[in-house]
Amino acid sequence: MNENKTEFEPKIIAFVCNWCTYAGADLTGTSRLKYATNVEIVRFPCTGRIDFMLLLKTFAGGADGIIVSGCHPNDCHYTSGNFHARRRWIVFRGLLDFLGIDVRRIRYSWVSAAEGAKWADLVNETVAEIRELGPYEEYNKVLNYLEKEEAYE
What Pfam families does its record include (predicted)? Predict the structure, then answer.
């Protein structure tokens, strides 16, 4: 056995709302709370603006997991963007099943600007779960799907 084998470190991309979750993640840092560094944050004006294809391209680009997080229900800066995001997530789960992508690789949550500790917990739990699932290596399925979609455009 190879004693120098390193533990798999997942690459996780987080698509977050500018007004709530991004501010909550900032609070996590300014509060000096400890959390995994495996997450790269992409800030959006609102989670309601996140498209399915962006999430699929994120997997095709090498991500092992994704976090989508925004404002709590009825606290959206844009009134109902988080409700749009939730409805999209429900539909997107069916597409993930169709493509054979384990839905546990995407975590959907609500984190407010005041919940720095909740963000740290979310990141740590997601990293642990993705680490347990192992690397996402079925990029070809996603790439084939994306190529077919682009051919129809």
Answer: FlpD
What DSSP string describes 69-103? EEPPTT--TTSSHHHHHHHHHHHHHHHHHHHT--G
Please state the pTM of the whole predicted model.
Answer: 0.87
* pLDDT digit string, tens, across residues 106-137: 999 999 999 999 999 999 999 999 999 999 98
- CA of residue 29 relative to chain centroid, distance: 19
Q: Order of strands across the sheet with 39-44?
A: 39-44, 12-17, 65-70, 106-110
Query: Within the chain, where are the H helices?
Result: 21-30, 52-60, 81-99, 116-133, 139-152
